[in-house]
Amino acid sequence: MANLTPVIETMEHRWMRAWVNREAKALKGLTASDFILLTASKPPMILDRPSWLDAAAKRWDCSSYRFGDIYVRSVGSVAVFAASLELKATLDGRDWSGTVFVTDLWRKGKVRRGWKLAQRIVSRADDNRELPKAIKSLQLWK
Description:
Blueprint: H1 5-20, H2 24-30, E1 31-39, E2 45-48, H3 49-58, E3 60-75, E4 78-91, E5 94-95, E6 98-108, E7 115-124, H4 131-138
Parallel strand pairs: 1-7
Antiparallel strand pairs: 1-2, 3-4, 4-5, 4-6, 6-7
């Protein structure tokens, strides 16, 4: 199978630009009908597609974004996208800017064959500089 990284990365940028520009129609078109957004908060919280689309249009404003290192993996008719994401955002007027880590699940449609975002998991990035080295030491391949 061809490398999906540029395809999925393009879809990610379309989705994020639609949020920045508050383009509700574009966001809806890129988001699967069973989409959920899961935040790694305590307790974890979920937004379904209607809640997310309403929040993006009215209450959760993103003025800019930038992806860090990107990871894409194809698993059959789905693709996993993971990256750090630097946001300038507000939620109900309160600052929500910073770096988060997103893990997105993109699913290819059976009829139209287009990619739709089915799930986004948002968590805070870990700033522990020792963690990558510690995880690397666990890898059995070298």
